[in-house]
Write a structure and sequence with these properties.
This protein is mainly α. It is built from ten helices and no strands.
């Protein structure tokens, strides 16, 4: 293990993202407002459904907290000293498995959202399906499968190709899950307040458009990038600029919604979701990793262009 004295924007970005991942998870883990929630909302057997899904998801929050702590320590240590490939793979495997368990514990919420214990009316069922059933089912099945497969194929003794393949597929499922989840929350907000509510303020209109159509476009582009890159033999074969663009775009979505609340204030069902119940709000720090990747690619192209010109 050697000293690693070179501090780059990418390393700093990774440290900030890992810190955000840890701090947001820490806050969610020790927030106790959800305790007893099943006695305050719904009615009849609906309360029992809230109880089951809250309790079943809590162990996953613990595993994500442990994974985020490992990630923070590993990145912080890696800035000072270079980690060996074997140790890096072991740490990544642990983080991936713990993150996969977190998503897996959301499966009861997905099942409950598709077959709720109590259906009050069709509108209620539709809103519940869009906000909980569909996104939780897709995320709790697709993401863990990819992460477990990725962890299995991470090894210095195995070709990088399979690990890259599962990392790309996992990335697609992540973006699709975020699109389904956030779009579902906007749709039920419209069902409650009417579409005129979206047009009432510019920030609502932009947020609605970037959620339903912006994240959809990002999902399609991520799937396209994954399909084109799935045969990559090594990380060096990937287009880092495209990876940077995806990470930056996803992070800016969360950052935009957070900043609009800070600058414009107010509170509604959308902000209650995006700020109060969203365990992935830490993604607002992603541009600090995405932008260095974009800059790195541009810098590399510029150097090659200069070398060719001077040849």
């Amino acid at each position: 293990m050697t000293e690693n004295k070179t501090v780059t924007p990418l390393k700093v970005g990774l440290l900030i993202v890992a810190s955000s991942y840890f701090l947001f998870t820490l806050h969610a883990l020790f927030t106790t407002q959800w305790l007893g929630e099943w006695n305050r909302i719904g009615g009849g057997t609906f309360n029992f459904g809230v109880f089951i899904t809250d309790i079943s998801a809590f162990p996953g929050l613990i595993t994500r907290f442990i994974g985020s702590l490992i990630a923070l320590i590993a990145v912080a240590y890696g800035i000072k000293k270079s980690l060996s490939p074997a140790r890096t793979n072991k740490l990544l495997k642990a983080i991936l498995i713990l993150e996969a368990i977190y998503w897996l514990t959301l499966l009861p919420s997905g099942i409950w959202g598709i077959w709720p214990s109590q259906v009050f009316n069709l509108t209620f069922y539709l809103s519940f399906f869009l906000s909980t059933g569909l996104p939780c089912t897709v995320a709790s099945i697709g993401i863990p499968i990819c992460l477990f497969a990725l962890a299995k194929n991470l090894s210095v003794n195995k070709p990088e190709k399979k690990a890259i393949k599962w990392a790309l597929i996992a990335g697609v499922f992540y973006v699709v899950a975020f699109w389904l989840n956030n779009s579902g929350m906007w749709l039920i907000t419209i069902m409650e307040k009417g579409f005129g509510y979206v047009l009432g303020k510019p920030e609502f209109t932009i947020s609605f458009a970037t959620t339903l159509f912006g994240l959809l476009a990002l999902s399609i582009y991520t799937a396209y990038f994954a399909k084109k890159s799935i045969g990559a033999e090594s990380l060096q074969d990937l287009r880092f600029g495209a990876v940077g663009a995806i990470l930056t775009s996803l992070g800016l979505f969360y950052l935009w919604n957070y900043l609009t609340w800070i600058f414009f204030g107010g509170w509604n069902a959308w902000y209650a979701w995006i700020l109060g119940h969203n365990l992935d709000l830490w993604l607002l720090s992603l541009p600090l990793v995405g932008l260095p990747l974009l800059f790195y690619v541009k810098q590399t192209k510029q150097i090659n262009h200069t070398e060719t010109k001077n040849a």
